[in-house]
Amino acid sequence: MKKQTHTRHLLPGQTQKRVVILGLPPVDALDVIGPAEVFAFANSLHDGAPLPYEIDLVSSGDDVHLKSSTGINLTAHKTLEQERRGSAPIDTLIVAAGRQSVGRQHEEAIEWIRTRSGNVRRVCSICVAAFALAETGLLNGRRATTHWQMARELAERYPQIQVDANPIWVKDGNVYTSAGISAGIDLALALVSEDLGDHVAMEIAKNMVLFLRRPGGQAQFSVTLQSQRAPGSSLDELCLWISEHLHTDLTVERLADQMSTSVRTLIRTFQRDLKTTPAKYVEDVRLEAACRDFELGGHSMEAVARRCGYNSVDVLRKAFVRRLGISPKEYALRFAPDSTLAQI
Q1: Which residues, listed in sequence order, are joined to residue 23 by a DSSP beta bridge?
Q2: CA-to-CA distance for 53 and 246, rounded, in angstroms?
Q3: CA–CA gap between residue 60 and residue 80 (Å, rounded)
Q4: Are 85 and 114 contacting, i.e. CB atoms less than 8 angstroms apart?
Q5: How far apart are CA 49 and CA 64, in angstroms?
Q6: Are 203 and 294 members of one domain?
Q7: What is the pLDDT of residues 133-178, one digit of tens each?
Q8: Residue 37's domain is classified under what CATH number?
Q9: What backbone phi and psi angles, to 5 degrees, belong to 86?
Q10: Share of the chain above pLDDT 70, in %
Q11: How far lies 288's CA from each of 76, 100, 179, 283, 284, in Å?
Q12: What sign results for the dihedral spanned by CA atoms 304, 307, 313, 318?
């Protein structure tokens, strides 16, 4: 399909931005291709010179053949050694890897990232490439994310990082980290939005036939599904009961009474089986339920707040801004069916 072309102009004073995607083999192919396609679409929507982005794929290996976990290998524009010898400035550095590359020796690439990052406007990792950024020390003292299945390992290996397994992507200063696989597309869209405006990012999302453009704070996975990953847990019935009583006052004391146990035992069980606290679990389920209500549409803000256990619309708004970085109304405008927006 031919990409649609619309006239776009860079803002006065803006110049072409060089985006370097550094692949640490074997990469997950979509971690490379997904973000690259976003920047390529941004170029295709621009009529004029210079184009917004120059995109270079760099292989950290000895040659330009970049192995991928699919067995379908990619051809980079240059090797890391060739990039090192060059002098072209880098605006945005994106590091991509794959699960099979975690734990492998990438000393030269790690040192290059550490050295080069001081002259780069934005440094990003896709999925498990967060481990590479962690090795450079760039994530120390920062909040970061990775694929939820690898988040605990990242936190254990690098205790100086504030690992959050929940968001799709995280921005902390000029360092960005994203969750797994398709989340790299969401991060790239956010970067384009920063550079060219939200309307351009939304147009790219439509061209890529994405069902929705996810904000960074959106959860990687369902909290309720995650609670079902501990088969045989004594919390199974309680978690179901919580989801059916979100509108009530769910204090830790009430949950302990419902389970006929002590508060201390309840907290210990949540930590053991779900790796969270009772209060945090209730907060997560309430927010997930509110998001689901907005996505389905047909509910007013007041009705969603009441059904999900928020004392007021203001409390609901604060929860959304704190966890997702956007208001409930903004979330609804992005995800609710158009026919129901008037009710919000």
Answers
A1: 59, 96
A2: 47
A3: 5
A4: no
A5: 29
A6: no
A7: 999 999 999 999 999 889 999 999 999 999 988 788 899 999 999 9
A8: 3.40.50.880
A9: -80, 170
A10: 86
A11: 40, 32, 18, 9, 6
A12: negative
Domain count, the chain: 2
165 within domain boundaries = yes
Closest CA to 188 of 14, 4, 21: 21
Instruction: Out of 207, 235, 266, pick the residue that ends a domain.
Output: 207
Quote the CA–CA distance of 279 and 297 in Å, as a whole number. 27
Do 190 and 254 share a domain, yes or no? Answer: no
Domain limits for position 246: 223-343
- The rounded mean pLDDT for the chain is 86
Q: How far apart are CA 210 and CA 213, in angstroms?
A: 7
Q: In this structure, are 291 and 230 located in the same domain?
A: yes
Domain limit, last residue, from 176, 207, 238: 207
Are residue 120 and residue 203 in the same domain, yes or no? yes
Clarify whether 124 is annotated catalytic.
no
On whether both 266 and 290 belong to a single domain, the answer is yes
202 shares its domain with 228: no
CATH number at residue 302: 1.10.10.60
Regarding pTM above 0.90, the answer is no
Residue 195 and residue 240 share a domain: no
User: Is residue 140 classed as helix, strand or coil in its secondary structure?
Assistant: coil
Q: Return the closest-CA partner of residue 95 out of 52, 62, 138.
A: 138
First to last CA, the chain: 37
**Nearest 10 degrees: CA dihedral of 9, 11, 13, 14?**
-70
| List 127, 239, 291, 308, catalytic entry | 127
Does residue 246 lie within any of the structural domains?
A: yes
Per-residue model confidence as pLDDT tens digits over 241-298: 998 999 999 999 999 999 999 999 999 999 988 888 999 999 989 998 898 888 777 7
Residues forming a β-bridge with 158: none
Q: Are 94 and 58 in contact (CB under 8 A)?
A: no
Do both 186 and 238 map to the same domain? no
Lookup result for tokens 């047909």 = 298
Strands 162-163 and 74-75: unpaired
Residue 111: its H or E element: helix 107-116
